[in-house]
Amino acid sequence: MTSVARSVASLLLGVAFLMLGNGALSTLIGLRLSATESGPTAVGLITAAFYAGLTLGSLYAHRVIARVGHIRSFSAFASIVSVSALAHALFVDVPFWALLRLAQGFCMAGLYMCIESWLNGTATNESRGQMLSAYMVTLYGASGIGQQLLRLDDEAGVRIFMIVSILMSLALVPVALTRTTPPQLPKVSSFGVRRLYESSPLGVAGVFISGAITGSIYGLAPVFGAASSFGVSGTALFMSALILGGMALQWPLGKLSDRFDRRTVIIGLSAALSLTSLGMIAAAGMDQPLALMLVAPLFGGLSFTLYPVCLAHTNDYVRREDLVSASGGLILANSIGAIIGPPLASAMMSAGGPEGLFAFIAGGALCATLYGLWRTRVRPPLPAEAQAAFRALPQTTPTVGPLDPLGPLKPPLPQ
User: Fold this and answer.
1) Quick check: 316 and 262 in contact, CB under 8 A?
2) CATH classification of the domain holding 265
């Protein structure tokens, strides 16, 4: 693991700078807008704009990379992300901020594509799993730690935007100076959602609901924190607990799904998430911030694990040579959920108070539970020994698919 991480250290360092900045920025937007009249509605729309940009970038950013190359594309995308982060400090305007987040989402997808294709070009068949793990730890770890940057905000409200912009600009340095040869951009075609649904209805429904849930958490959990009088430091800690809890529970719950019918695990996970969401509502109603903080890692772990378990379930019904394109289709389905979810969750928060976020998540998880129970009645289970080993993939772009250790084998590197 250490030798693999060392071989792509410059790339992972660039990812770390990006996620430190992007993680802090998404929470900062929620905090800044929570006190406005539009409140959750504005945050929901701005969050949807970011995921719309991410989806468009997943579909079209590869054209920029193919035309000018990885390093030039990375530099351009990172520069736009950095400038747009700093532009938030000019004035607070919902349409303007939505446009900035749309551009950032597109460029973040381009950055993910550059990094992921670079990692895939560097990896061998033996090291793909370790490289994917290092990438996952960097993504989630930096995003979770980045929340603590909010403690550096000042009364004028400008310093934190400067820090975020600086970090995103610094992402350019290790990548621009890397001596690793830029790879060819892999050709990743995505399954259509209909074809994927025919292969695994529960898998597609699950990743769609997962996108709606996690997109709402990233965008609107800071609004809940502000409304719960957590303050900036408390909200930063709350968000870190959610994200790092999501990283910690993926492996144990994923391994559990290797031993049993994955549908049973998805049903249990979704039911537990629905109950945990109701517990968050109860704790909020009793004004118990400590209870909310203690339950946050479990809530985040259940929320962020739904996607990889549903992905693994879908891959159990897909041929090995189609795993890469299937994962690309699932990421797009997840992104569509992330576009739709935040506006719906914000509407529930506007109607029922900040606890409406958890009511939305409880409802979404309940839908996944009921649909999973129905699927067990119409399709026989796949034997546990016939299931492929669990492996978590990040919810970034379809380009991450070739890093899947159980995907199509790469030709051996020339000696």
Assistant:
1) yes
2) 1.20.1250.20
Same-domain status, 224 and 287: yes
Q: How many structural domains is the chain composed of?
A: 2
160 and 284 fall within a common domain? no
**Integer Cα distance of 106 and 53 in angstroms:** 4
- In this structure, the answer to whether residues 359 and 233 fall within a common structural domain is yes
Q: Which residues contact 323 (CB under 8 A, 6 or more apart)?
A: 315, 401, 404, 406, 407, 408
Contact indicator for 339, 55 with CB cutoff of 8 Å = yes
Q: What is the pLDDT of residues 155-200, one digit of tens each?
A: 667 899 999 999 999 998 888 877 766 666 666 556 666 777 878 8
CA distance 153 to 317: 49
Report the predicted TM-score, pTM, of the whole model to 2 decimal places: 0.90
Per-residue pLDDT tens for 200-258? 888 899 999 999 999 999 999 999 998 888 888 999 999 999 999 988 888 888 778 77
Tell me which residue range forms the domain holding 314: 191-396
